Amino acid sequence: MTEFNYKTCTGCSLICEDILFPDAGSGSVSQAKNLCRKGQAHYQALFSERTGPLVEGSEVSLDQAIERAAEILRNASAPVIYGWSNCTLEAQEVGLALAAKIGAFVDDPSSYCEGQLMERILSGKIPSCTLDDVRNFADTSIFWGSDPSSTQPRHLSRFSYFPRGEKRQKSYEEERTCIVVDVRESPTARLCPNTTYRVLPGEDLQFLEAILAVLEGKIPKFGDKKKMIELGSIIKKTEYGVIFPGPAMLVSLQDQMDRFEELLRRLNEITTFKVVPMTGQYNSRGYSQLLFDRTGRVKGVKFTASGEAAEAPSLVEAVKGADGILVLGSDPLLDLPLGLARSFAAAPIIAIDPRRSLTADVARVVIPSAISGLETGGTALRTDGVRVTFEPSMKTNQLADEQILTRIMEAI
Amino acid sequence: MVGAMEIYMLLPKTNCKKCGLPTCMAFAVGLLGREKKLEECTPLFEEKKYEAKLAKLKEIVAPLESASETGLVIHPEKCFGCGNCVIACPVNVAAEPTRCGAGLGPESEKVILRVEDGVVVANNLQECKRFGPNKILCNACTATCPSKAIEFV
Amino acid sequence: MAVDVKVVTYRDIFQYGAGKMGLHSEEYLRLSASIILDKGDMASLGIAEGGKVLLENELNRVVLNATASADKPHPGLAFMIKSPWSNQLEGDESCPAGASGFRGIQAQISPSSESITQMDEILQRLRA
User: Fold this and answer.
1) How far apart are CA B151 and CA B126, in angstroms?
2) Could you give the 3-state DSSP secondary structure of residue C109?
3) Domain count, chain B
4) What is the CATH number of domain A51-110+282-411?
5) Can you tell me whether residue B116 is helix, strand or coil?
6) CB neighbours of B52 closer than 8 A, spacing ≥ 6?
7) Size of interface A-B (CB pairs under 8 A)
8) Whether residues B55 and B102 fall in one domain
């Protein structure tokens, strides 16, 4: 009987725990089992373009890089710490302690639009559940502005459509319905063409109001009337429904989230309906939860000299005025819109990253780190809040993020 | 996926019976079902006037040859590694009800589909429900693929 | 001749993989410096499949490869994978973290004979 030495993937926020790396001993991820294409790319990337300690583009020792990083942060009057979502909870805790110590503004990529939903879920304003609940009980999964096949590839096969569950033994063939609401025919939409609703950009509110209308038995003012009425019937027959909103829907409804709250209230009068977020990086939720527990917010927070959180500037203002930015496991120059990316590039950056990135290439100081999930262990929160603890699969000489942050703190 | 009519249109259409079947249409069906090989239609290869049609036929028939007995073809360059087919396959689920049945990766060697190096691979195709004398038209794996990476020819 | 389009960004697993293997690679360029246009819009602009287009708005301009959409007609709507190319035209007022692209970026499309905007060019613009 073979012992299965299951490992964890930190490629997306599903944090799959059934990965096998038969070649881990020789430092390779070849023939990995159960890793989806995204997880495979995430890990395969590790073996190229690893960072080494750099200051102003010159190779230095790790100690020198840490020393210079501490110097920048110590002297900064408006420091910023950005990234966070690719770090373990342990690293995030140390990072927040550092932020409090130096009075930094902290923010992560998801806080603006996805943060609106996350804040409501963490505070209980919108009901949520775990993905295991989805697998066991959900008979209607609604992907609204999200395309799990491309962003969390095993979402449908592990939880939301294809597997059997406690109350869903007949699964997708007879007992589960998958609904997609999107502007285009995404790969996920191809799987359920009869229950795909085409909604153009900015029309999400009208679509939402149309659902509320059909639930009242009224004729909807938006969309194909017959299809909307059908949707109403599906909802009324649902025993346990789950909505998975994606960034497309959240940015569209960002000023009307109270209507989304109203929709959930109404749905829960008829039956049970939950919302599970679709977070980007593997520990986005972990960071949001930690910040929420500390400050009651998930959006950008400015720590003051006394260590307490205060009213914060916007990310754009904070970065424009920053005289020291610590970027943790993120690549803002790759991901952010033009203006903000330029503001980042103009400030003195300390990049802590296992791998070369656009941001690391412009950074004043580069500090190499171990890849969490492969080379270091730790704890993270899956997109549904379930705590996952993992051990490393490979040995490394690199320091883990929390070790680097601790050393920076000591040097300050 | 190519049809018998498409193949028939490229054949000599003389019903010469040199392949052992009574009509060219029967040969087209036989080619599709992998019971006949293109080489068995000797006029196609011997007579110059069929050169262009032969070239086109070779192109069409190539995926049929690489397909398995069940007709399964995987295009790894299109595969997302999502595991939908692994979880939907009834043979996989029967072999591992607490793993494939519940959305997890398989442990045994008995399964047909598994994800390796980020894409799906197929083994044990003789266990597939489309194979053998009692074959049925099961399409669980192809119907659940978001990218047509897994097909039947 | 230019046509107004709303460019909606989306995520693609193959472009993600290409990016992981190398942000300066041919594959990443091919998948990112591309835009999917409605067939009718392409015809009215006289752009052939794989032809080059200039995508421009008040923020910036990029030259991309155009492919015809296989989806139901969507005149006035174009699709781009979220990438440094799409970020070049995205403002940060409504969603600084870059999600506004999912709701659509207003821009103009016209045929172009310039060469495709390279990654180096994008980087230079960020450092400027």
Assistant:
1) 17
2) strand
3) 2
4) 3.40.50.740
5) strand
6) none
7) 101
8) no
ipTM above 0.90, yes or no: yes
Q: Spell out which chain C residues touch chain A, with contact meaning CB-CB distance below 8 angstroms.
A: 6, 8, 10-14, 16-17, 19-23, 59-60, 70-72, 74, 77, 79, 84, 87-92, 94-104, 123, 125-128
Place of tokens 């927070």: A301
Measure the CA–CA gap between B75 and A338, rounded to whole angstroms: 37
pLDDT higher than 50, residue A9:
yes
Is A158's CB within 8 Å of B119's CB?
no
pLDDT (tens digit per residue) in B77-88:
999 999 999 999
Residue A214: in which H helix or E strand, if any? helix A204-215
What gap in Å lies between CA A268 and CA A270, rounded to an integer? 5
What distance in Å separates the CA atoms of residue C54 and residue C65, rounded to the nearest whole number?
Answer: 9
User: Domain spanning A114-275 has what CATH number?
Assistant: 3.40.228.10
CATH for B59:
1.10.15.40
- Residue A40 with chain C: CB contacts under 8 Å: 17
What are the pLDDT digits (tens) for A144-165?
Answer: 999 999 999 999 999 999 999 9
Domain that holds residue B41: 4-66
Residues 6+ apart with CB under 8 A from B46: none
Q: What's the topology of domain C3-127?
A: Barwin-like endoglucanases (2.40.40)
Q: Which of B66, B86, B101 is where one domain is finished?
A: B66
Query: Alpha-carbon distance A348 to A354, whole Å?
Result: 19
CA distance B30 to A166: 46
Q: Where are the alpha helices (H) located in C22-97, listed in sequence order?
A: 26-32, 39-45, 84-87
- List chain A residues with CB under 8 Å of C123: 333, 358, 361
For an interface test with A, give the residue of B82, B86, B109, B142 to mutate (most A CBs within 10 A): B82
* Tokens 């009980």 found at: A137
